[in-house]
Amino acid sequence: MQEYIFSLPDPFPLESGEVLAGAQVAYRTWGRLNATRDNVVWVCHALTANADVLDWWPGLFGEGHFFDPADWFIVCANILGSCYGSTCPLSPDPATGVGRFQNFPLLTIRDLVAAHEALRRELGLTYIHTLIGGSLGGQQGLEWAVSRPELVGHLVVIATSARHSAWGIAFNEAQRLAIEADATYHEGRPGGGDAGLAAARAVALLSYRGYDAYTATQTDPDDSRLRDFRASSYQRYQGDKLVARFDAYSYVALTRAMDSHNLGRGRGGVGAALASIRARTLVLGITSDVLFPLAEQRTIAAGIPGAVYGELDSGYGHDGFLLETVKITQALEVFYAAALAE
Known about the structure:
Layout: E1 2-7, E2 12-13, E3 19-20, E4 24-30, E5 40-44, H1 53-56, E6 73-77, H2 109-122, E7 128-134, H3 136-147, E8 152-158, H4 166-180, H5 194-208, H6 211-218, H7 230-243, H8 248-259, H9 270-275, E9 280-286, H10 294-303, E10 308-312, H11 320-323, H12 325-341
Parallel strand pairs: 5-6, 5-7, 7-8, 8-9, 9-10
Antiparallel strand pairs: 1-4, 2-3, 4-6
Helix pairs in contact: 2-3, 4-5, 4-8, 5-7
Catalytic activity: L-homoserine + acetyl-CoA = O-acetyl-L-homoserine + CoA
Pathway: Amino-acid biosynthesis; L-methionine biosynthesis via de novo pathway; O-acetyl-L-homoserine from L-homoserine: step 1/1
Binding site for substrate: 201, 319
């Protein structure tokens, strides 16, 4: 594994009309390009992940797994706005020398993909064998496959959408309200909004798992308990865990980017955009996902010519895209076997 920093064109233009000065992208690679340079797997990560895909998607990526660096040249770039090495709200503004914090420019999914595309050109990669991502990563994958249809051979998207739903936007806004209710967020400093971020994570978890998952894992065995319930402790633990590794300003920036996702904007609608995808596509939904329900996956699959649709039967809710690696591997094996047969 190698980790690198790539400096984007300066200033980097954004879809909103603003520019981002001094922007950079952190990325990692594993494996080597083969002689024909056609073994590239590019991973687009989700909301609070990073460029180390072997760490957050174990069982799918790594030695002995489906995407083994012995066979593939794997690339994963940390998205703009994220606090794992790429330019984010904490990064110093070249003009002032201090972070932009809550004044960080608006990012969209198209901006995140534009940064990937600039990195792709820098690496001299002319073909991506497989572009894969779940959730926010799937949104990036779809956007990239629409904007550069000749680039991607195989597209794998899991638990995502062609346009972020009103339901998803409402969840994100509830989380941002929690962060903005923390007075320290408005101070514009490292650590600002940490208490709000913990509360936001607690809100998000409700959409990531769902009723059945909480019932199965967080129900108290002690019927006499009157307070300090297991589910309460779990919410607080997960909130504190995210605060220890992430940042409230990045969280606000990236949830706003997710809200912007609309493949059809300026392209004649979602249907026309999906129809332009030329990659051989696998769309996977999760049966218990309440954030990106199966109906959204079916819409994607129905709109992309020749797309294959599958469902992961899982009780983990939306988080199943990270946890059900055995079932994802089985779906990939069938998908690639059919591709090879044709």
